[in-house]
Design a protein that fits this description.
It is a single chain. 32% of the residues lie in helices and 13% in strands. By secondary structure, the chain is an alpha+beta fold. It has 2 domains: 6-111, Ubiquitin-like (UB roll), CATH 3.10.20; 114-248, Orthogonal Bundle (Fumarate Reductase Iron-sulfur Protein, Chain B, domain 2), CATH 1.10.1060.10. The strands form 2 sheets. Strands 2-1-5-3-4 form a 5-stranded mixed sheet. It starts with 5 loop residues before the first strand and ends in a 5-residue tail after the last helix. 32% of the residues are buried.
Length: 253
């Protein structure tokens, strides 16, 4: 460890959901291969700011520490991303950490992502199985469809795409790109397709596809490279067909 090299963090803090945010600066000794999470853990171990004043530890969410769970999302140097995969060596200093403002702030960098999970409930983002008895093996998915469906299944519900989307905010009920892409995923599943029409009806209503402004920020920010805009385009076609079915009252459209 270098005796002279340090890393400076400017962290947006908020003591309660209703209190005003403020900034606090921390200076840490540099370590090779340091990521943002390890820096936050160091501050938690010794919560002293750059003025030498004792302060409270930073609050943030984390779990897997390997970019799988999506819990540690925050805004790093103006960009929403995962703090576990954000390496200090690749970040411009001072490193600025802020919570994702699309979601209500609980404390400091910790946010309440209930909005996203409630949207997944609205679109029934699951495969309906009775579960009370052995149904036997389900129908097989064609390999070509399985390959692109697997790409959609990589979603870790991190909320980064909603933070990047200009149409998802506290003045809009737009469910955002993540739940929309999950509609496409579960509608592609042979058993999940049993609720295909119901899911499409949901996203044809308020807060659904019509609220997408096609900014494409979501696909650029997704840490898993999920083709979110491709899903939205496919759903536009599917909802058009569903509208014809509704109008003509036919399953043959």
């Amino acid at each position: 460890m270098s005796e002279n090299k340090t890393v400076t963090f400017v962290i947006s803090r908020q003591d309660t959901p209703d209190s005003a945010p403020y900034e606090e600066t921390f200076v840490l000794d540099y370590r090779p291969n340091m990521n943002v999470i390890s820096a936050l853990m160091e501050i938690r171990r010794n919560p002293v700011n750059s003025k030498g004043e004792a302060t409270t530890p930073i609050a943030w969410d984390m779990n897997c520490l390997e970019e799988v769970c999506g819990a540690c999302s925050m805004v790093i140097n103006g960009r929403p991303r995962q703090s576990c995969s954000a390496l200090v060596d690749q970040l411009e200093q001072p490193i600025r950490l802020e919570p994702m403002r699309t979601f209500p702030v609980v404390r400091d960098l910790q946010v309440d992502r209930s909005r996203m999970f409630d949207s997944l409930k609205r679109v029934k983002a699951w495969v309906p199985i009775d579960g009370t008895y052995d149904l036997g093996p389900g129908p097989r998915m064609p390999e070509k469809k399985r390959q692109w469906a697997y790409e959609l299944s990589k979603c870790m519900t991190c909320g980064v795409c909603l933070e990047a989307c200009p149409n998802v905010n506290d003045k809009s009920d737009f469910i955002g790109p993540q739940p929309l892409s999950q509609v496409r995923l579960f509608n592609a599943h042979p058993t999940g397709a049993l609720n295909k029409g119901e899911r499409l009806e949901t996203i044809m209503g308020d807060g659904g596809l019509a609220n997408c402004g096609n900014s494409q920020n979501c696909v650029q920010s997704c840490p898993k490279g999920i083709p979110l805009t491709t899903s939205i385009a496919a759903l536009n076609r599917d909802t058009t067909l569903q509208a014809f079915k509704n109008f003509f009252g036919s399953d043959q459209v």
